[in-house]
Specification:
Length: 295
């Protein structure tokens, strides 16, 4: 993980001069400050981190930070970040998506990034609705919720990101809450330090379009698995049982974490050196030298 050795990174380094267009009270503000706090706590300078987002309210986030950022197509944050990461895996790689963006349109990419175990952090701003496009129900909208596209109540069951990620082979699975930025920042730090794919599903109120899952609704239900000193985050069976909890009790914190070889570690071409540091436009002689390292 790239750490600034001689300078002390501060919050000021991550401030952007862009004015936010988020609604006052939106949970995205808490997520933004938690990401900034995490990067500062880890002393990662802005030029050594990359955030890729898709489309949605929360996907404007890279604009509101002084950082390498790329706003790509709806649902395509993971493949875009995969390409960037494989070209230069020295950068701290973070994808920021919404629930519709990450679990709906980008669901296929989400699933395959987990089984590949790419060394990236995937932050999902889960407000259980499509906010930017004015309140349609999303993959995580609770069954029965009235939205602009479900006037009689959503008839589909919501996806469960935690059990989905467990089944797909993610090596770090956590849930956070935008209303508790300090705790969220600690989870983000752990995710960045984890070697492998790290999912953080972040519960985030959309004050404009989701009148059901409000800040108070979350606060009444959430608890942290780390409050139980006997909670074993390597226990897959326990993680599934914990991940299934919803409605009455909602688990937060690091629900599951194990170590497994990463995708990039199993690629001999970049195992020792990022692609970006390898010889550019090699001569015939250079090419033979590179070839001899592998064959
Ligand atoms: Fe946030 Fe919802 Fe407003 Fe979008 S519509 S900025 S998610 S409160």
């Amino acid at each position: 993980m790239p750490v600034a050795e001689e300078i002390k990174v501060t919050l000021k380094d991550y401030k952007s001069d862009q004015k936010s267009t988020w609604c006052p009270g939106c949970g995205d503000f808490g997520i933004l400050s938690s990401i900034q706090m995490a990067l500062v706590s880890l002393n990662i300078p802005p030029h050594m981190a990359m955030i890729v987002s898709g489309i949605g309210c929360g996907s404007k986030l890279p604009d509101y930070m002084n950082i390498n950022g790329y706003l790509t197509l709806h649902g395509r944050a993971i493949p875009a970040l995969t390409g960037i990461h494989l070209a230069n895996h020295k950068l701290v790689a973070i994808a920021v998506t919404g629930d519709g963006d990450g679990y709906g349109i980008g669901g296929n990419h989400f699933m395959h990034a987990m089984r590949r175990n790419l060394n990236i952090t995937h932050i999902v701003e889960n407000n259980q609705i499509y906010g930017l496009t004015k309140g349609q129900y999303s993959p995580t909208t609770d069954k029965g919720m009235i939205t602009s596209t479900s006037p009689e109540g959503a008839i589909e069951y919501a996806v469960n990101p935690i059990t989905w990620a467990l089944a797909a082979g993610a090596t770090f699975i956590a849930r956070g809450f935008s209303g508790e930025p300090k705790k969220l920042s600690e989870i983000i730090q752990a995710a960045i330090q984890h070697k492998g794919y790290a999912l953080i599903d972040i519960l985030q109120p959309c004050v404009t379009y989701n009148k059901l899952n409000t800040s108070d609704w979350y606060k009444e239900r959430i608890y942290y698995v780390s409050d139980d000193p006997n909670y074993d985050k390597q226990n897959l069976e326990k993680a599934f049982a914990t991940g299934l909890q919803w409605e009455q009790k909602i688990p937060c914190g690091i629900i599951y974490q194990v170590q497994r070889e990463t995708y990039e570690d199993s690629l001999f071409q970049i195992k020792d050196k990022p692609l970006v540091d390898q010889v550019k436009n090699p001569s015939k002689e250079d090419f033979e030298k590179i070839k001899s390292r592998y064959y």
